[in-house]
Design a protein that fits this description.
Elements (H helix, E strand, L loop, with lengths): L1 E7 L16 E5 L2 E6 L4 H5 L2 H19 L5 E7 L3 H10 L1 H11 L2 E10 L13 H34 L4 E3 L5 E7 L3 H14 L3 E5 L10
Antiparallel strand pairs: 1-3, 1-4, 2-3, 5-7, 5-8, 6-7
């Protein structure tokens, strides 16, 4: 039984999109419901890389379409062996799921990328020789190190500033983060990010469209 997302039981009247291979349905337990594709066999998909990729993309599409209609707890590409195990999970973790849904209501995830701007360090003069050349090489290297330190300091400051206003999920490289912000008022977030981008001397900020909160569940 393939499961796409968890929703509040009150939202089960939403329009269900087509799944990976067939129609979807909801399974309810208390105040929670799961959007599932009950008859999907994963083994044939896992045996074919092309079909598996198409299934993963369809999984993402379904979650996005549900997200446009209601608050969702998106699940990774996953399955429950049977209906009873899904119902048991909904029963056991219902309070946690409801609290998460309440925290996410009206919010969306935005990916923010940081692109390092080109440095203005002068290259080493190829006409230099001997000690002058090695001194120039050393100074060039030290200049690169200082530039990297300035970039890192500014990046950390940018992320810290954003974190003061929004929940943030970071990546190991820190050059892309995810922000949880209002779903129906992206202009506020965009204005704040645009202002930060103007103030940053070492980084260019870009951001994407509102998405289901994959990194906040």
């Amino acid at each position: 039984m393939h499961v796409y997302a968890l929703i509040h039981q009150a939202a089960i009247d939403l329009v269900l999109p087509r799944g990976i291979a067939q129609a979807l349905e909801t399974i309810s337990c208390g105040q929670m419901a799961a959007v599932v594709e009950p008859g999907l066999a994963l083994e044939p998909l896992q045996a074919d890389d092309t079909k598996l990729l198409e299934a993963v993309l369809a999984h993402d599409r379904v979650i996005r379409e549900l997200f446009l209609q209601t608050t969702v707890l998106p699940l990774r590409f996953t399955a429950f062996p049977e209906r009873e195990s899904l119902l048991a999970d909904l029963q056991t973790n219902q309070q946690t799921y409801l609290e998460t849904l309440a925290r996410l209501r009206g919010r969306a995830e935005y990916a923010v990328k940081f692109e390092a701007l080109p440095t203005a360090i002068e290259p080493v003069d190829p006409n230099l020789t001997g000690k002058a050349y090695f001194l120039a090489k050393k100074q060039h290297y030290q200049g690169q190190q200082r530039q990297q330190e300035l970039q890192d300091t500014e990046l950390n400051a940018l992320i810290a500033t954003i974190s003061q206003h929004y929940p943030v999920a970071t990546q190991p490289s820190l050059q892309q983060i995810y922000i949880l912000a209002e779903q129906n008022n992206p202009a506020k977030l965009e204005a704040q990010l645009a202002q930060l981008s103007l103030q940053a001397s070492h980084w260019r900020l870009t951001w994407g469209e509102p998405l289901p909160p994959f990194h906040f569940v």
